[in-house]
Amino acid sequence: MNDTRNGRFVTEQGSPRQQGNNLDPWYHHYAQRTSGLAASEVRALFAVASRPEVVSLAGGMPYVAALPDDLVVGAMDRVMREQGPVALQYGSGQGVPALREQILEVMALEGISGSADDVIVTTGSQHALELFSKLFIDPGDVVLAEGPSYVTAMVIFRSYQAEVDHIPMDEHGLIPEALREHIARLKAAGRRVKFLYTVPTFHNPAGVTLSWERRLEILEIARQNDILVLEDNPYGLLYFGEKPPAAMRSVERDGVVYLGTFSKTLAPGFRVGWALAPHAIREKLILANEAAVLSPSSFSQLVISEYLRDADWRGQIDTFRGVYRERKEAMIAALEEYLPELSWTNPNGGFYVWLTLPSHLDSKAMLPRAVTELVAYTPGTAFYGDGSGAQNIRLSFCYPTPESIKVGVRRLANVINGEQDLLDTFAGTGPLTASRASRTSPNPPTDLR
Amino acid sequence: MAEKEALDIVVLAGGISHERDISLRSGRRVADALQSFGHHVTVREPDGALLGYLSESRPDVVWPALHGSSGEDGALRALLELAGVPFVGSTTDAARLAWSKPAAKTVVSRAGVATPASVTLPKETFRELGANSVLATVLGAFDVPLVVKPAHGGSAQGVTIVTAAEELPRAMVDAYTYADVALIERKVAGVEVSVAVLDTGDGPIALPPVEIEPIEGTYTFDARYNAGETRFYVPARLDESTTEAVSGAATAAHSALGLRHLSRVDLIVDAAGIPWFLEANVLPGLTETSIMPQAIAASGRDLGDVYATLAAAAIADAGE
Lengths: 449, 320
Fold this sequence. Notes:
heterodimer; A: eight-stranded mixed sheet; globular; B: 13 helices
């Protein structure tokens, strides 16, 4: 008994089992970039979102039930009858040529013209984000992104050890003056800014859309500062009224890499997205894609190609618009009824409303209360890399029915009022800022992003 | 197992508690272990179809792997008792008692086991008497460090170690986001140990105590469920007499609370070798990183064998 670390009763050490066990013999072998990949209390709380009693306003899941089964079944049936061996085989690392031609038709709806040679099909646009990051980010680089920004993009950027510098937005999207200031400050500090990541249309999570004038101005700033723009546009075709401005890629070919996806306009289960990139970048993306997955799913690509060839896909997108418009209106009406004292964005498309709480409330800290009230939301902190966003909540209206949305917002009002009441009780007793920081990112599970 | 009959076992996992995620992990592990031991296992969520399903399928036994309010507060157990379905683990009354950390402390203390001084406060108390005066009274009676925790629940959710007086208000808020009643407890310095207890009819048996050494100092949620972030010593690095005292305290707590089949008792051993009771869990974590499976393995037992023995004990108890 010579070890007094924890008191005199501690026994001598020396036997193998007294070395202890951390349950992961490879714990010290992981790459540094994996440090954020960990279970967290917040992430565990999201588990209740899958229960039917819980109204999940957290999920970014498209309402695929609005897609008639027979459209997909018919396409699958024809693919297997007519191209079965091809569908079940490896394919090109760049993607099926016919689908890449059809993707040009889809992008043309948003003002984009290009060559099918410059399209790379990926496993969802998420994988295009990963490949792009692999090509461009060195440890210590700076990635510019809106504040807030898409949660899983930031997970990727951080995994390549980039620092995400958030540029503020207002109701017209990213603020050009702020972008200039940030770039100047970073350059003055000797930092290397690699690219600007932006979701200009029906932003996730903020719901705002970058105005046409600002699109042009931001492209000009990027040109002047030799900064590539990564335009991520999953929601652009899901507008509720007036069409949004054309994509940034429509006016700038060389300085923009454009990401698109079928996840929102068809179904995410296919895991098919794409990148449209300038020639040199395209070549590297293809090689990176091959290195990562050999080829994107031939089966999924051919089914989508068949669907685009045979079905009224434009009409189906219009159906989705109607579904999401009704749900957005239900959410805004419920917010007006149950939380009239708060402010929120009112998007003209997409999936999300960005709610702003009174400044002393912390959306992450009150998440356990939401579990008790049977409602799920995504705390704003998930959308920042720097711990900001505590005062915000992302509410998704894409998946629950209008009736459920109303119930969910009513429960959310109970959560907010309950937390407000508690903080009022302790007002004046000391600092009440949430202190339960975690080194892990409060990322929701995949189906809730 | 060769000579034993395969049982139809329903493992319950999930639920809508704050610990749903942990329960799903525990349930899968329990089911795997029982299946590897030759039993027919069905994993079910406690949902609107459960009671009808149990009534129709009449399994030999239910194995609740439910943490948090849906599994440990006694409610579901009461319904299983009413339905006449044998189930593994403590009975309703005992579960309800252990579920309340303040009540459990009182009962265990009466049984002669030390437990840190504490005060239990519903949040209404702060509203009624004024938060400033209540906090001042608490801080007048207790020196920091303190542990603030919800009066029920596990996985360190809502728990804060308060090292300075000004941290107490926020710690109270965090605890009250999980429960309407919070426990403020003196933080005992020492070695953190957990003792798994098995009790299948011949009295409680303490398995080797597990010493917990989180690499960042505190056994938080992250430290519990990320392999590599806590170092466990099984058995704990305690001398023989201290080990005996710790094991004795655990079985005394288990018995005083009237628990059966399995439990996990959490204790701090201070510099004098005195074990201090913190809480008892009627359904301890059974995940890959949980303490009870480590203790079972360290005792030379097989997980599937132990879980099956508990199932058999539940059937035998129901037949009495």
